[in-house]
């Protein structure tokens, strides 16, 4: 190989590396609704960068939280909150009738059932996340616990993320639900949306659930992220890169 050819090959490698870096992006993927069923344990086969959000006071909440910690996997509290449609909330939910001290006491009990949780996202909550007082009490509790908040965005009228920012809390919102429809073609469509948003804005947050079809899809396709210039990060690491409280407002972008 001549020196010129070697230089040409080196230039091609450098261009390829620069192109990959220029197009790189970060994705956080949260699997929530974990804790009710033993079959949820299948999610532990996913890469440890995938964050688990665990429902409090469920049959496997504490066991799965400890197991996740053993894997070095990040755990969040998936907190039930009152919905507009009157959905059944499960134990230990936050509702509009609770006083602010009662909200913080309820959160404290929930956190005790999900040890090692470092953040929180809402389970349902289309009613509660629109309301200032309960959301302020929630965010003040999280700030005291040095936790972060991710708004699941179960309603377009949610004020939760804005109130979290006003409280000085590291916070963000969900951009894509992967498995609103439990169908591989639909999950693939949403997976591609997540990638497009990440490429456009350098980061994106996806939420999925421990459905068998979802876990099968992710086990088959998550490795594609790296090949497409996307890093899979725990939720807290994504927030620390892009959603520090002092820059949170300028970092917002809408779901696409």
From TrEMBL:
InterPro entries: Divergent_DAC, Glyco_hydro/deAcase_b/a-brl. CDD domains: CE4_DAC2 (cd10936). The keyword Signal applies. Keywords: Signal. It comes from the Bacteria. Residues 1-24 form the signal peptide. It holds the Pfam family Polysacc_deac_2. GO terms for biological process: carbohydrate metabolic process. This is Divergent polysaccharide deacetylase family protein. It comes from Saliniradius amylolyticus.
């Amino acid at each position: 190989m001549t020196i010129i050819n070697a230089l040409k090959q080196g230039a091609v490698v450098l261009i390829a590396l620069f192109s990959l870096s220029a197009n790189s992006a970060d994705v956080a993927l949260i699997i929530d609704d974990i804790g009710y069923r033993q079959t949820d344990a299948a999610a532990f086969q996913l890469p440890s960068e995938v964050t688990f959000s665990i429902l409090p006071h469920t049959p496997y909440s504490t066991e799965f939280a400890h197991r996740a910690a053993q894997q070095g996997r990040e755990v969040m509290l998936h907190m039930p909150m009152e919905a507009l449609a009157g959905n059944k909330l499960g134990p230990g939910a936050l509702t509009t009738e609770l006083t602010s001290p009662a909200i913080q006491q309820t959160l404290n009990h929930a956190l005790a059932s999900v040890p090692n949780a470092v953040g929180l996202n809402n389970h349902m909550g289309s009613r509660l996340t629109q309301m200032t007082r309960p959301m302020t009490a929630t965010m003040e509790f999280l700030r005291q616990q040095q936790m972060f908040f991710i708004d699941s965005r179960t309603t377009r009228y949610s004020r939760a993320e804005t109130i979290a920012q006003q409280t000085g809390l590291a916070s963000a919102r969900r951009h894509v639900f992967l498995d609103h429809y439990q169908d591989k073609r639909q999950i693939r469509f949403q997976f591609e949306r997540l990638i497009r948003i990440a490429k456009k804005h350098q980061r994106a947050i996806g939420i999925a659930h421990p459905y068998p079809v979802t876990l099968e899809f992710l086990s088959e396709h998550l490795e594609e992220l790296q090949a497409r210039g996307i890093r899979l990060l725990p939720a807290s690491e994504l927030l620390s890169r892009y959603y520090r409280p002092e820059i949170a407002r300028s970092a917002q972008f809408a779901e696409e």
